[in-house]
Amino acid sequence: xxxxxxxxxxxxxxxxxxxxxxxxxxxxxxxxxxxxxxxxxxxxxxxxxxxxxxxxxxxxxxxxxxxxxxxxxxxxxxxxxxxxxxxxxxxxxxxxxxxxxxxxxxxxxxxxxxxxxxxxxxxxxxxxxxxxxxxxxxxxxxxxxxxxxxxxxxxxxxxxxxxxxxxxxxxxxxxxxxxxxxxxxxxxxxxxxxxxxxxxxxxxxxxxxxxxxxxxxxxxxxxxxxxxxxxxxxxxxxxxxxxxxxxxxxxxxxxxxxxxxxxxxxxxxxxxxxxxxxxxxxx
Amino acid sequence: xxxxxxxxxxxxxxxxxxxxxxxxxxxxxxxxxxxxxxxxxxxxxxxxxxxxxxxxxxxxxxxxxxxxxxxxxxxxxxxxxxxxxxxxxxxxxxxxxxxxxxxxxxxxxxxxxxxxxxxxxxxxxxxxxxxxxxxxxxxxxxxxxxxxxxxxxxxxxxxxxxxxxxxxxxxxxxxxxxxxxxxxxxxxxxxxxxxxxxxxxxxxxxxxxxxxxxxxxxxxxxxxxxxxxxxxxxxxxxxxxxxxxxxxxxxxxxxxxxxxxxxxxxxxxxxxxxxxxxxxxxxxxxxxxxxxxxxxxxxxxxxxxxxxxxxxxxxxxxxxxxxxxxxxxxxxxxxxxxxxxxxxxxxxxxxxxx
Lengths: 283, 354
Hints:
The complex is a heterodimer. Chain A is mainly alpha-helical. Chain A has two domains: 13-163, no CATH class; 186-283, no CATH class. Chain A has helices at residues 3-6, 21-52, 58-83, 87-93, 95-106, 113-129, 133-144, 155-169, 172-183, 189-206, 209-213, 216-223, 228-244, 248-261, 264-270, 275-282. In chain A, α3 (58-83) packs parallel to α6 and α13 (228-244) crosses α15 (264-270). Chain A is elongated and about 90 Å long. Residues 273-283 of chain A have low confidence and may be disordered. Chain B is elongated. In chain B, a hairpin with a 6-residue loop joins β1 and β2. Chain B has a two-stranded antiparallel ribbon. Mean pLDDT of chain B is 83; it is low at 1-50. Chain B folds into three domains: 15-46, no CATH class; 61-159; 197-354, Serine Threonine Protein Phosphatase 5, Tetratricopeptide repeat (Alpha Horseshoe). The interface between A and B is large, with 52 and 50 residues.
């Protein structure tokens, strides 16, 4: 027997095809159709029962069928939700398994609207994690145009995915629109920290260096609340802008602090463009 | 496309300067806040400590902490309420269908409505608890320890039925007591957390290191040594994490507390990298290393050691103010008054040029 034959077979993972808004809309429409059919059956049965009374048992059968249908939709939705219950942990340990599970859940029909949107939100998270930024931005952008209902609390996360992915793709317009949307929302402190990091990246990428270093003392205090590599990265970006805005003393102070908070490797890993390289170019 | 753009309408008001890259108006942080949020960047979500309570604050004693934790232990989430709600709905349906005439359908509907109101209120209460826990966490993160401690203390009785939230709240109490230098109370809270976590869980290891630090502050050197010895066996699993960094800081602090300054210098080589995951709090480690070098310099009359000490002191004061360093580690007071270090002292606030 060969070595390959003795090794356990790799589990086969399903994948989900690249996101298409058309497919997403069609799935939502089919889900809505199933739910409406159940409602029509329910109200039709009640109305018929009121009209024909005891003359026929069909209306009662329609009501029971509607109840069974509604329970069926709820069961399918809850199974889909249960399947991706450990999505976060799966994403860290095995993105392929996470995608396979997610694909299985997305194939289910019919689902409640909230469940479907929740699955697509996780697809955006997955694509972002897989560095498929264009697709992640596309999913986030599409979801943000929908009424999110029960998934509303994920709106800020979707905006973060949109901004981050747009910046990674060089789509500064998309990033601008996402940042603008975030500013219009009431944000927790943690979301404000995320916004600060993303907005600074946007401003550095666009060359709005004076804007980036405005209120620098507040920004530095906020940056200190971030995990060390992110704090260092933010300091390095601010240093880049300070140097470009002809504030060498501030730039030097920020860069020295950035060096204490994060290694160059950590900072480079955080962003495609290396702030340290950008810094040396501008100075 | 139209739909997408419609959803993202609302480019900020104010004098737009066209973006050279995107061709759309650039925003300024201040203008955007004024135009779209009518509030500055930091103020809305940054917790306002004054609003927590105006009552005078005195931290609880270790006995009070122990009593509070003992009277509010976490309980397993009861499923009886859910079953009771289901039973009530079933009972109501039976009433409605058993006798379609008379008052029974109305009673049935009232029971169903009552169950829904109960479930709705329970959901609202849960959201309120989560909101208060998040607020306490934000206050802790922004160094408003008294306010955060007060909120977490008040929150604890309400979260006993939610074990995860209970754990977070006890962790906040421990962290805030630690920040307020109430180390005896902090040890009690750390004990409670460690007791409820699997032995080698990363959070448990982190809490054990923090408890060892608290023991060191309380001069319980044997307890701290015992704790750090046990942690040493598992610390290799946490390379380049905040847990490993906390361990390295505890190790350094232990050598300082036991006056083994020369031994502490043995940690200097990798200390900068080792402590990085702590963020600005790495400054405490840098300052302790500066103290070790200065003690060494005084003992051996070594100018190069004093120079090294100055460099470490410069790193420390770049991340934290001298007041912060001295408040946390009283032994650093002598460095803050040392004239040899004055030239190395940095500012931890940005030098804003006008």
